[in-house]
Amino acid sequence: MGAALLIFIVFLLSGESTRALWKIDLSDGRTVVSDSVRIDEGQVILEDTVVSRNAVRSIFRIEERKPEEKGIQDDIRIVLEEGLRLQAKFPDAGGLILADHGEMVLHEDGTQTYRYHFAAKILKTSTKTWANVGIHFEEERSRITVDLARTIKPDGTVYSVSPDAIKVIKPKSDMVFFERDKSVQFELPDVSVGDIVEYRYSEEVFNPWNKEIFNFGYYFQTREPVGSSSLVVGIPDRLSLTYGTRNMDTPSPQVWEADGYRYYQWAMHDVEPVIEEPMMPPIAEVVPRVEVSTLESWDTIFDWYRDFQVARMVVTEEIQGLAEELVEGAHTDEERLARLYHFVQTNVRYISIKGGAASSVSGHLALETLEKGYGDCTDKAILFATLLKAVGIKAYPVYVGTNDEIPTLMTEVPSYYGNHCINEIEIDSSTVYLDATGETSRYPSFWSADHDVYAVNAIKRTVQRIPVPDPSENARTYEYQITVSSRDCEVTFVAHYSGDYEDAVRWHYQHRSEEETRQIMEEMIHEITPYSELIDYSLENLHDISQPFGMVLRYRLRNYLKKAGDLLLLELPDLSGRYTFDEVSLTERRYPVSYSTSARITHSYSIKLPGNLTIVYVPRVLHLTHYTHDGELCADYSAAFTTGENVVDFTDDLKRYRRVIPVSSYHDYKDLVDRISVFAKEKMVFEERTE
Predict the structure, then answer these.
(1) Most C-beta atoms within 10 A of its C-beta, which of 14, 67, 481, 654?
(2) Both 379 and 425 in a single domain?
């Protein structure tokens, strides 16, 4: 590491009696401890040696704790007593968070200081992970001070983290380029079940992204009980604070002023743990949370984002020429849009690049991303918008928070928002959204995690919600031709897809060898019956994402008709398996059912019977509809059998319009899908004639 990147981070381990030391990490992996350190031009002068500044990776000032004095100090006694109190209140918990306190202060010069205190009692092996601490920071923007890090035994014995156990780590990944991201990591010592782990640290943000934008969020609940959780936000009293809360019984903060600052505090006590439910929303969506900002409108954020984006959406000669070449022969803007979409998807590799505002917020120049052939989501959105601009289609990069991870935006609080960047496009007097990071999404589909979330469009200065597509845009169509011979069935199965499901299935098979694919097909039909035989299969348009993906299977089911006295029973292959709804397994729910998007499933079965079978019974016609309590159509289902001479036909159609099923509508929705599940298991009944 060059001299310009030499970092100084101060670590303090509190104690009654300490002595100052310096820990120097060298580029060759060695560590040197010295009582003194001095930097003189190109040299680092230690107590008993001198090393080149270029050979030094980092320097830490530490305070080494001397052995603990006998007896239990008051602060330790308080922590132990709180652990016992909470353990009595939550005896089945795997761990107890005794203290979860954050304080964020905005200073007059725009810098920020964040302080955090965590203490927890470990009751099961699973929560021993609390002893492994990682604190993220960007070395060019902030620095970390660890003020306290210790393990407290039930008898009051304290073990503090040793100085050489504190490391600065640069995360590594095969798929992610980390530019400035690092973390301070340490492991609390000698941790066993029954112990309390505790640490405090502060982060000084000396170089925030934008000193005009102050934004911070905090959560007050997790999967384990919390004794005390609080957030204090301090700002200069000349400023005003915009804040929003969700899922909080007491949304208004306590407010006081001191020394030219105004402080706001939210606090919760004895918080019940989150008990996870099948297909619930991201935990951040359902727990109590606070979002704060010093901005009264989105204008400052719009201006900042827009300036980055517009400067990078430059239509160069290279981009203009490429765009015109790609759309040559296309007759409509929609054709042009689809071609450019598929080009960016398949020719620019997606790589997540973490770093400062220049990459995370704004992306790189469109031409730079094109020439490199890779980029993160913002880079791809910038390039895609620029290519569209070159052919006269208005397009914009927009920031979103994906519905699988990020809670719904509080639009009343202007904020840094989102974990992803996609495109908003104006075409034929309508607005569409596309996500060019998806390598297998066929136009006009895009990743379902982008559905039903807010999009921040800085260039248009709008914040609006992306609609959930109509179920027909996320459809699965299954067709079966079944010929019955004696008790065997020969089946030709054809499947076609659209939307997110097509994306997922195509990606799945693109990443499988021929041998693996055949094995998957055999496993599919063996789930119908172990006595099955795959005849052949084919995949349509596997690698051409401009065309619909589909599959065709031919297989034989041996002894599939079941004997019941003088009757034969036939269950439609695959139907009951597709209509298994684990998300409604609970009698009651505390949280909504959260899907990624809408859905549609249709089946068509045509069953040809031999002449010696007479139809005795086919299930009734079924039609079900469910509206939410606010009157919105949520789902409907229709199914019908028709019979002819030696033929039975079945068709059905399930459509789910809503992405999220609210708790208030859960019972009615559960009733609908439970009735579908029961119906799908019903069997046709035949009588075998004997000559």
Answers:
(1) 654
(2) yes
Q: Are 357 and 210 in contact (CB under 8 A)?
A: yes
Q: In Å, what is the CA distance from 204 to each residue of 2, 106, 208, 218, 262? A: 23, 10, 10, 18, 19
For 418-435, the pLDDT digits (tens) are 899 999 999 989 999 999
Residue 29: predicted pLDDT: 64
Indicate if 162 and 223 belong to the same structural domain.
yes
Residues 282 and 257 in one domain: yes
Number of domains in the chain: 4
Give domain status of residue 144, yes or no.
yes
pLDDT at 163: 77
Cα dihedral 198→204→210→215 (10° resolution): 30
- Encode pLDDT of 114-133 as tens digits: 999 999 999 999 999 999 99
Q: Residue 195 sits in which domain range?
A: 76-293
- Residue 135: strand pairing partners: 184
In a domain, 101, yes or no: yes
Strand pairing class (394-400; 454-457): antiparallel
Question: Do both 165 and 263 map to the same domain?
Answer: yes
Predicted TM-score (pTM) of this structure: 0.86
What is the three-class DSSP state of 126? helix
Structure tokens at 216: 């911070």
Residue 630's identity, in one-letter code, is D
The pLDDT value given to residue 180: 57
> Quick check: 537 and 512 in contact, CB under 8 A?
no
Structure tokens at 652: 């059905």
Bond preceding residue 467 cis, omega within 30 of 0: no
